[in-house]
Amino acid sequence: MHTYQATENALKDKVILITGAGDGIGRVAAITYAKYGATVILLGKTTNKLECVYDEIVNAGYPKPAIVPMDLKGATKQNYRDLAATIESQFGRLDGLLNNAGILGSLGPLEHFCSSTFENIMKVNVTAQAMLTKALFPVLRKSESASIVFTSSGVGRKGREFWGPYAISKFAVEGMMQTWACEVGKTNIRVNCINPGATRTSMRAAAYPGEDRDALATPEDLMPTYLYLMSDDSSEVNGESLDAQVKK
Ligand code: NDP
Question: What Gene3D superfamilies does this protein map onto (predicted)?
Fold first, then answer.
């Protein structure tokens, strides 16, 4: 799907929530979805980053977005319920959920991982996504054709030394996607994963500090796959884990 070309109005009138919309891949996905006609709900930890994305979208003349400041590490069941109720009252439905927010934690041998780091990574990368998706499921059901997208990683498909709790969390994400996909079956909802591949963001820079950033793909390069899974062109696709970059 690396060559997918969305039509100008591919996401017109869709309502799509993006987690981690203030930075990195989530920021670019939010702006791209808005460019193709979606009303985007920008969820993230740092309010001023969300406000910058909001301004960019409004200044470009795309549909007016909404902002949801939320720290997924501390969010409660009630926070997710309230969010679902707000979406229901403001929009009546949700057409897309991009579970993108994630943290890397620290890399190193599993023999030495720190339990609080492990718990934080699991909370943000797995538990929060499970709880958010569950809470939003009733509003996703109200869409004619809804897409849930989780964000995986190469280290969530094949074990690699020293990627520690992050890798474990991404295996869990793949499993969560597959389980959801089996359960939604042939309904109005489809559930898939994207593996972005090495991408020029702060997370990648933290994992590979000595790397030549200019040699990496940019978040913009990944957008054909991100658009494909949110557009109705993928309405028959369920339970897949797609690579956003061509393997070299
Ligand atoms: P970045 O670190 O650039 O951005 C992560 C985003 O998640 C930020 O907007 C951040 O918000 C948000 N976030 C982090 N913690 C929380 C939290 N507790 N609550 C709410 N939001 C939070 O990462 P990338 O854009 O690189 O990564 C996006 C996704 O892609 C992640 O799931 C990552 O694992 C995955 N991925 C990335 C790859 C890469 O090479 N970049 C490769 C494979 C997978 P804030 O800025 O406010 O902290």
Answer: NAD(P)-binding Rossmann-like Domain (3.40.50.720)
69 pLDDT above the threshold of 70 = yes
What CATH code is assigned to 15-243? 3.40.50.720
**Tell me, what's the ipTM?**
0.99
Best mutation site among 17, 18, 19, 23 for ligand 1, i.e. most ligand atoms within 8 A of its Cβ? 23
Determine the Cα–Cα distance for residues 144 and 146; give it in Å rounded to an integer.
Answer: 7
Structure tokens at 153: 């990683």
CA distances from 227 to 16, 129, 175, 243 (A): 11, 20, 23, 13
The gap between the terminal CA atoms of the chain, to the nearest Å, is 15
Q: Which helix (H) or strand (E) holds 175?
A: helix 164-184
Check pLDDT > 70 for residue 248: no
Q: Which residue has the tokens 């920021």?
A: 27
- Domains in the chain: boundaries: 15-243
CA distance 95 to 187: 13
Which residues face 17 on adjacent strands? 41, 97
> Ligand 1 center to residue 186 CA distance, Å?
31
DSSP-derived letter for residue 218 is: P
The percent of residues in the chain predicted with pLDDT above 90, rounded, is 96
Catalytic residue among 80, 166, 226, 228: 166
Candidates 85, 206, 78; CA nearest to 138 is: 85
Query: What is the number of alpha carbons within 13 Å of residue 197 lying toward its C-beta?
Result: 20
Q: Is 166 a catalytic residue?
A: yes
